[in-house]
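Quick question: what would this complex look like in 3D?
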Amino acid sequence: MAYLEIRNLTKKFGDFTAVHDVTLDVERGEMIALLGGSGCGKTTILRMIAGFTAPFSGSIAIDGKSMAGIPAHKRNVGIFFQNYALFPHMTVFDNVAFSLKLQKLPREQISAKVNGMLELVRLTGMEKRFPRELSGGQQQRVALARALVMEPALLLLDEPLSNLDAKLRVEMQVEIKRIQRELGVTTIIVTHDHEEAVSLADRVVVMNAGHIMQIGTPDGVFDYPENPYVADFMGFTNLFDGTVAAVDGETVTVTDTNGNQFRAHDRFHTGFAAGDAVQLAIRPDNILPADGPGENVVTGTIQNVTYKGVVSRIDVEGVLKDALLHINIHNYDSGKAGARMDAKLPADKLLIYKN
Amino acid sequence: MRKKEKGRVSPLPVVVTVLAYFFILLPLVVVILASFSPTPVLKFPPEEISFKWYANIFSTSGKFVSGFVNSIVIALVATVIDIFLGVTACLSVSKYNFKLKNVLVNFFTSPMFIPSITFAFVLLQLFSGIKGMPAWSKILIGHIVIILPYIVRNTLAILSSFDWTLEDAAASLGAGPVTTFFKVTLPVIKPGVMAGALLAFLYSFDEAVVSSFLTNAKFSTLPVRILNYMEFSFDPTIAAISTILILGSLALMLIMERVVGLDMFLKT
Amino acid sequence: MQRKKGILLLAAPCAIVLLVLFIIPMVYVLVSTLREDGLKYFVKFLTDTFYLKILWDTILISVEATAICLLVGYPVAYFLARTKSKIKNLLLIATVFPFLVSAVVRAYGWMVVLGQNGLLNQFLQAVGLIDKPLEIMYTYKAVLIGVVHLLLPYMILSITSVIQSIDENIEYAANSLGASPVQTFLKVTLPLSTPGIVSGCILVFTLSMTSYVTPKLLGGVKFRMMSTMVNQEVNVNFNWGFASAISYILLFCILVFQIVATMATSGTLKRLGGAKNA
């Protein structure tokens, strides 16, 4: 039996179904990410686990104990809020000590635990400050410490990195992962940022419109999304239609709407037949420059080159019907707008979905 | 020091502003001057300074001291009761949006929309049918109603900017609804509630309409005692009391500016 | 849903107190007046030009007070909202603190200034502008001065809060697009500050209509407003039925005014984005 068991969870707001029959198991000590755009239901699931809102149907159990009818303050679920929700009238110490004081622990024990936790999040020396006197990153650490100090049965992180600038994000990613490992607390992260999800979580749950679209390891979900929705969400910006021309075992030959021929691998064992309408997907980073024709090589005209720092993004015209082919290339310096370009879409990176 | 930035304000508003504040402050300054006048009629410029009217406050038949105490007690009790009524009422309409929300808010602030004289008369008429009710209880009831909107409005204002996830945070950390209210919600909204309470207190303390209709010879508030005294005597004893009240308000004002700032008066 | 309903219960104490001590008495006294005297006193009031004149004076003085407060208060509010000097806080204190001083005290101040031997007459006689003291006390003028003094701070604060919330960059934008300061004011600042003007005017007019202490002290028995009429009927003529009729006529006027004013202005205010929290 899994540590956290979510069974057939459904939530309705009036006529609107925010969460639709979601079933999910989370193992003890695991870090899992609920990933999806706004309105996909991820936050609603979080709020149901926390006990802020009751499910319409379905069940949630933590460590074998059903959460039905248990109010939020008796669940021992630690939450990191997107806006941190630090108590503005309390010092850092009092914020972190809040739950311990409610448990009426002896004073020395409280201060030992709080100090230990502040050390863990590297905030020693900030005990007497008020939240408004801290930077965003520091506030975030306080919020994390406050949620963790009560040794929660479950830790919920709501968009933990969304309010930070790029440099701090990376730093906090590492930090959160380190702390989670150190304490071994079962953690659920809610995020709309796929990079955040794949870099933090052991498993990623991609959601859309209240449904689970895919559950998998970060690299699985990132590299091999199982359906066009997840592919699009994961940054497969090249997504185009085609028809199966031939099938040879797991190798599928597809003709796209512009007449290009591609070979692709039936990675998900969908089982295709000639004539099937399909969608092809490939990440811009997986397309390689090619020298002359070959398998899965297409030719087009460079419409636009955008320097993006580490990579250059090239938009190629004339390959796809009614769309540009996007390619990301490191240290690109050979082509300019207007030039011809050959590009290879490797068969093992080209994903194919039945329409 | 950087050069003082000039506001882009043209001369017209400046001139009007100067005149307006002369007008606003004139009678208050005059009252203070009159309180030190040696003669019953203020001569300007004053020839000498006298404190006899201040001494007179305690010696005349005006019963100003007991009036002052009564006013304080009524204002204090009414304010404390209304803090409870107002804060609970505001909490009920602030956290969620619902159809009748505006109706309820208007209901809670409704005493503001009616003339005090009408309400004063209504209470007079109503209480005249009830024998043996002491005057203080009638005045207290009147004040509980008329000062409520001040607390409600200020509490609503601060609750509108209250971050309700703080309550969720407290719950997730193990605090039940009651603990959450006293440890988190109340401390955070306290400045707004206190500001409203202060205004309500002062309004009750200064109130003369409802009080003058419900008062009797035995129990009366300070503004009513002053009004009654003026019916038969117009000497600067009134100026002396008024000066004390003016300076008291000024002191409160300065404390308020320090503690909560004056921005609360700039919220409509 | 359960939580939402539970939280509504918190409204109960306040709602019960207001119902029992406010709404029910207001209705009860009206009904009992009507039951005892019918419409007799309402008819008496509405058919006698003497009383109608008092109602008319009350409305007139309130309109004038509102107009004066607006004309004086707007420039002051504009100055307060836009000045960058340190004097702002001082002026804000000077605006707010009289507002915390009892109307009794403030009216008394004007009695000292405007009386027969008051400062104004002393001054005018001293500089030789007049021979005989002016008769200002217990006239329409005295009450008007007192009411304006009483209510000017409300107007200033209402308008200041709105002007202050207008993004100054909008004014700079108008300037940069070629509008002179006067044009900027007329075409941008003034229209955007309507919510403050509207709420200030509604407030001042209402409070003026219902003011009691000021007309009592500065108008005396010579110049009466509706509220002092109520007092007259209660404490001098002992005609409570008539006092009741006057009270409710005043209440009715105020309610009609507020409803009409709110409906008439809500369209404009909504189009301004309901903005500026007015």
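Answer marked as accepted. Chain C has two domains: 1-38, 52-271.
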